[in-house]
Design brief:
433 residues, mainly alpha, Citrate Synthase, domain 1, Cytochrome p450-Terp, domain 2, two-stranded antiparallel sheet, 20 helices, 2 strands, globular, binds coenzyme A
Length: 433
């Protein structure tokens, strides 16, 4: 028997042990926590510290103590714009203070001095097959800039735990300032006939991104809103946790963010925003291009669940209500694109999916998360290439995770090393003979 066949037999024999432990002995304590938490991805185990954001299951996210509406209202905005400077939000994430307009604009100016992307990044992107997923391109572009790391140079020239945050902050800011151009370059190269648009350094983070994407205002405000909404969701989600984990080995911001972006590319995490649009397009296709009715959607939702797939954009590991990031984008749609066809379909899904998920009886949270709504706005402004959506999420997520690893170094957090046990040890704890 070959290796793979032997392995298959072992897996088939092992699976019932894990299932039994979960089903019959999930509540057995292993110290302060249970077998279910140990097998089930560490749900609810308090083992991470962050002050950048906090996720309450019923209220949703707060950034540095501020709700989403408070952040949008209190932070300074570019003249004539409805949404805040991303740079001012970075100031808030790092310090916990709402910056004045002058302070935010100082960060805007600082970002411009750091924004130039090295030519070799474009060369590497151009050398990649054009059908590579944009998240691969995005992650590779971040990783390849590791040679610029000030933190790595600091480490090699004599590391000091007390001042390590300084070069981590420098790397984090250098990286962030370059992400809009990298993301927009990937977009224009891959989807718009290889027509990159040069940056306009007179613009802020969101404004310059919209300019380089080639999408007119108010897309600049959409970009500001989108990046802020997707920035952080405390530390336990896959992208934040991965970035933190890799940085805990004193890997620099380039290694760490690239790893976090790879985690974001998973369909159960950031890729869900692309999956939502893919799912809806599938519905259209199956109906021969006809706009689905509520009845059509009910049928397709059940078909999806019966096929064993998840409803993308619904459910959450921590939240137990509609995600306020969903609500915030829904309010944008109600204000700026109330009659948009896709918005109508997504709203119909919102009316039927929670009830279906409740009836299905598996998901602990039947309510929509951020990803259920975000594609609608992008689509409306002409960004219909939905496999690019996770890159947008990644630019936003970088704000939160980079603020976190700067503070990780400031506080000298330890290298992560949770303890694992064997299945036999769990069976012993459960009293299984
Ligand atoms: C987000 C997500 C990964 C959280 O996973 P989780 O913490 O394990 O969620 P739960 O504890 O509620 O899962 C319990 C069960 O419900 C299922 N479930 C959860 N959300 C579901 C959904 N949207 N559709 C169908 N089933 C779902 C899970 O797959 C799991 O099934 P299992 O027991 O057969 O493994 C999950 O809700 C999901 O896959 N959602 C769809 C993808 C998505 O929108 N991701 C973006 C998150 S921001």
């Amino acid at each position: 028997m070959g290796l793979k066949e032997v392995l298959k037999q072992k897996i088939d024999a092992h699976r019932p042990r894990t299932t039994r432990l979960l089903k019959e002995f999930g509540n057995v304590k292993l110290g302060e926590y249970t077998i279910e938490q140990c097998i089930g991805g560490g749900r609810g185990i308090k083992s991470l510290v962050t002050d950048i954001s906090y996720l309450d299951p019923m209220e949703g996210i707060r950034f540095r103590g501020y709700t989403i509406p408070e952040v949008m209202e209190k932070l300074p905005k570019p003249d004539g714009k409805d949404y805040p400077y991303v740079e001012g939000f970075w100031y808030l994430l790092l310090t916990g203070d709402i910056p004045t307009k002058a302070q935010a604009e100082e960060v805007v100016a600082d970002f411009k001095t750091r924004a130039q992307v090295p030519q070799y990044v474009f060369d590497i992107l151009r050398a990649m097959p054009r059908d590579e997923h944009p998240m691969v391109m995005f992650s590779a572009a971040i990783l390849v800039m590791q040679r610029e790391s000030k933190f790595a140079k600091f480490y090699n020239s004599g590391f000091n735990k007390m001042t390590a945050w300084d070069s981590m902050y420098e790397d984090a800011t250098d990286l962030l300032a370059k992400l809009p151009e990298i993301a927009a370059y990937i977009y224009r190269m891959k989807y718009k006939g290889d027509t990159p648009i040069a940056p306009d350094y007179s613009l802020d983070f969101g404004g310059n991104f919209a300019h380089m994407m080639g999408i007119k205002p108010p897309y600049d405000d959409v970009a500001r809103m989108y990046f802020i909404l997707h920035s952080d969701h405390e530390s336990g989600n896959v992208s934040a946790h991965t970035t933190h984990l890799v940085a805990s080995a004193l890997s620099d911001a380039y290694y760490s963010l690239s790893a976090g972006i790879n985690g974001l590319a998973g369909p159960l995490h950031g890729l869900a925003n692309q999956e939502v649009l893919g799912w809806i397009q599938d519905v259209y296709q199956k109906l021969g291009g006809k706009v689905p009715t509520k009845e059509d959607l009910v049928k397709f939702l059940w078909d999806t669940l019966k096929s064993g797939a998840v409803i993308p954009g619904y459910g959450h590991a921590v939240l137990r209500k509609t995600d306020p990031r969903y609500t915030s984008q829904r309010e944008y749609c109600q204000k700026y694109l109330p009659n948009d066809e896709l918005f109508t379909v997504v709203s119909m899904i919102y009316e039927v999916a929670p009830g279906i998920l409740q009836e299905h009886g598996k998901a602990k949270n039947p309510w929509p998360n951020v990803d259920a709504q975000s594609g609608v706005i992008q689509w409306y402004y002409g960004l219909t290439e939905y496999d690019f959506y996770t890159v947008l999420f990644g630019v936003g997520r970088a704000l939160g995770v980079l603020a976190n690893i700067t503070w990780d170094r400031a506080l000298g957090y330890a290298i992560e090393r949770p303890k694992s046990v064997t299945t036999k040890m769990l069976e012993d704890a459960a009293g299984i003979q």
